[in-house]
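Appendix B, example 12.
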Amino acid sequence: MKQTLLSLALLALGTTSPALAQSDYQTDSIFISKIFNAALSEGKSYEWLRGLTQEVGPRLSGSEGAAKAVEYTRNAMIKEKFDNVFLQNVMVPHWVRGAKEKAYILSGKQKITMPIAALGGSVATPKGGTKGKVIEVKSFQELRALGTEKVKGKIVFFNRPMDPTKLNTFEAYAGAVEQRGAGPSEASKLGAIGAIVRSMTTRLDDIPHTGSMRYASGSPIIPAAAISTNGAELLSKLLKENVDTEIFFEQFSETLPDAPSHNVIGELKGSQNPAQYIVVGGHLDSWDFAQGAHDDGSGCVQSMEAVRLLKDLGYKPKNTLRAVMYMNEENGLKGGIAYADSARSKNEKHLAAIESDRGGFSPLGFGVVGTPTQKSRIVSWSKLFAAYGLHQIGPGGGGADIGPLAQSGTVLLGLIPDSQRYFDYHHAANDTFDKVSKRELELGGAAMAAMLYLVDKYGVE
């Protein structure tokens, strides 16, 4: 609602971007209708996603699955006769989970097996596992107040849930995720021997959600894992009943040397300004135990589909349109950084970049990062999207992979889908193809194609 009001406010200001002339509005409305009709009647993104998730499967950076995903998306764009399809070299982190983790809680005479997942980047436990009494905290301030005396030799249990009152679940995620990313190092500074983190989801279930963590320079390195939300609730309950409750966990993860990989890029050449670029993209990598259907297989296939739709409808872009499959968003962002570095080194001018990395759910709008003039121009197109349920067009976020392009003045746009179910599947083994609605996925690809068309036709200034 906030974004919608902001959009209306910008429209009312009308700072520098006049409303579309009636003739332009009618022309654009007809063409955008053709985009949505083509996507919903003969879209290809759903079948591409089926192949990416079920033929390729998990594709963590550096893995065999990631290499297969590069070839899969490259071949898909070649088959669609994009004007140019090429690979961009990038070195990526190569972390491996190893054998399945083990964990159980010991409370009095009870021994309860619990599902956990090593956090991405974590070290393994010592051989034979890590066992210790548990200290539960919900903030770093609470942890630091305990001090070394109470934390040393213990396993710190970070149990701050995502705030269920936040209607924007990404806001709830942002309010909790620091305990996953930085919690293990904060615990190790006080002498903890391990860290267990509540999974980042509003849903209560038995599925642990992994995600990236990072060790602070100079801090001791301790193993860290995510526990399912049901497991977190039970552990918290047992700690209240018995302060001597212990947890045992064993994991086998390790970080190997960086590995060569690629971003995958497909182009539709511009007819007037071929050296100016507009990008649509998603990240090709997923976590190792997940098909990555929503995160971010959906964004990849929607990006390819956005360019394909315009090509097959006979649209001749002014600027070169690119679909980019970035590698390594999950645990390093090396693909996004490499793409922006390459663009700068080649003096490539990127007018705008659009990213889809919030799942393949029903599209609601776009977040825009840019100057007031640029935001006003894009918001002035809101009426064209309203018929398709996209009412949230205004200031917001772009996306992690396109973020590095902002340094060059590129306007960033992030597709905003309905977020209510996204964190049910985020970074978890249940992020599978069957969780994606074909219709919702195709609507998102059509929305990206429509925005790509308008940015190319009218520019962003």
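The longest helix spans residues 22-42. The radius of gyration is 23 Å.
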